[in-house]
Design a protein that fits this description.
The protein contains seven helices and seven strands, in the order H-H-H-E-H-E-H-E-H-E-H-E-E-E. It has 182 residues and is an alpha/beta fold. The chain has one domain: 3-Layer(aba) Sandwich (Rossmann fold). Strands 3-2-1-4-5-7-6 form a seven-stranded mixed beta sheet, with helices on both faces. Helix 3 packs across helix 4 and helix 6 packs parallel to helix 7. Bound molecules: S-adenosylmethionine (SAM).
């Protein structure tokens, strides 16, 4: 909690939330993934979604991406053996490769509506490119707004899986998939 609020005060544009994700939101996000063997978590922050991913998908490979060094360090010490990348989400996605052509779930808590515009643009472009590159893959993203988390390209489709009222503030869980390969 302390780590979350100290980062909120220092970097409000990157944090973009007033409180850590509740376990109800974390659970709804992991439910939206379904069964997959590979997961990438973007903006893992203080780790509530990471915890649920580890609990519900113990056999899936998991890469957790967190830009802020202190939060990345905390994730490493809380989740022993976890592959934590202290880097920009777009850099990690552009460099990820998997041995088999199997669907990957990208689960994101990135605050697209508050990110600086240039960061938002490169990140959404990398996500779309990743989903095009690995057929059957999807992005799971929450938002506090009543509309999709960001405007996707014409070859993608958003759908909302649920609303989570037990979160501050309440949030919607959305899934983005490619129309060509999703
Ligand atoms: C909403 S907060 C964390 C949410 C997390 N579920 C929690 O409850 O702690 C979003 C996180 O994304 C990270 N972040 C923002 N922009 C990023 C980027 N471009 N690449 C990687 N991480 C980023 C921030 O440092 C922040 O920890």
């Amino acid at each position: 909690m302390f780590a979350f609020f100290s980062h909120l005060l220092k970097t409000p544009q990157l944090t973009g939330a007033v409180a850590p994700s509740s376990r109800h939101l974390a659970s709804a996000m992991v439910r939206a993934i379904g069964e997959v063997r590979h997961v990438v978590e973007l903006g893992a922050g203080t780790g509530p979604v990471t915890k649920e991913l580890r609990r519900r998908l113990p056999n899936a490979s998991l890469v957790a991406v967190e830009l802020q060094p202190r939060l990345a360090r905390q994730l490493r010490s809380r989740f022993l053996g976890l592959d934590v990348r202290e880097d920009l989400a777009n850099e990690v996605l552009d460099g990820l490769a998997y041995p088999e052509p199997e669907a990957v779930a990208v689960v994101s808590s990135l605050p697209f509506r508050s990110l600086p515009q240039d960061m938002r643009e490169v990140t959404t472009a990398s996500i779309e490119q990743f989903l095009r590159r690995i057929p059957g893959s999807k992005l799971v993203q929450f938002t506090y707004q009543p509309r999709p988390p960001f405007q996707a390209s014409a070859d993608f489709r958003w759908h909302k899986t649920c609303s989570v009222w037990r979160n501050a503030p309440p949030a919607g869980v959305w899934v983005l998939q490619s129309l060509a390969t999703g």
